[in-house]
Design brief:
two-stranded antiparallel sheet; 11 helices; globular; alpha/beta; 18% strand; 8-stranded parallel beta barrel
Amino acid sequence: MTATTPIGPCEISWFSALCDDDYEFLGVPDPMLAASWEHCRDIVMQAETGGFDNILLPSGYALGIDTTAFAAAIAPMLQRMALLMAVRIGETWPPQLARQIATIDRMLGGRLKVNIISSDMPGETMASEPRYARTVEAMHILKTLLNGESLDHQGEFWQLKLDPPRIGTHSGKAPQLYFGGLSPAARDAAAKGCDVFLMWPDKRETVADIIADMRARAAAEGRTLRFGYRAHVVVRETEGEARAAADRLLSKLDAAQGAAIRAKSLDSQSAGVAAQAALRDNAGDDGYAEANLWTGIGRARSGCGAAIVGDPDQVLAKLNDYRSMGIEAFILSGYPHAAEADLFARHVLPNIDHALLR
């Protein structure tokens, strides 16, 4: 994509902290911000009111509350926003998951999207390559059934021959599958089965390299991919205020507590987490890996570990730069999530061309 290529609307999503990840001060638990139906519902409704297109409902077996149950409960409360429901493949039987997806999509009038997570079965550990191979099978099974097609799947992990369930999606087609991962096995799985490839924050040149690699891998499979970017955000009226707000987030964190939080995550040993740690380790003394990309947030969480920090114009420019590279979907978050959603909705969202990714 060149600078003269027209850029279409991008999807702007927020994040509801179903996985016990909401703080005023990172690493300091706050009972008022713990994952609960009431708190996570309020974040979703703040995003709906603020004008976001979509919201990620994360999933972690050992953390927070159940994602699919929450999605079904919140769906009737939404008038226009989509849900990006995370599902952990190691915890599901694909035909039943297909029925759940179709049912919730119907409740939303066709506005459900699915974030595929290549997880283990709770209590078990599977090596990376077979785990991703199982995920490819699951994506194929889900797409076949949700497209209303009969399935005859004789794979390594599932052997299934069945008709699609009576209940289908609102459109009669499978919803978009979002998926991320940086290991070779994860990249190959994405190229074979997902629709939107998600990335965590990194330097601009690294993002460009990942996009080029994934386009090539998808082309080798006879497919194309769209690209999404998951990041935190801290936006204030001035850059100085934004940097001060970022520093305040870490003002009560000690190194041992941050390490314990990172180790608790189920994906703490993944290639993506390692890349976030390297980004943080190679950042400047102030924690910035490049202009307006702050890695300090990764000191107290696993997974996505950097934030776009700046005034409204700087945050907008950063997002538009990613758009020029081919990013069409953003999944953003901030601490506390409801408050930061309001700030982003007021200061940035009205100034960016955005719409649900179709």
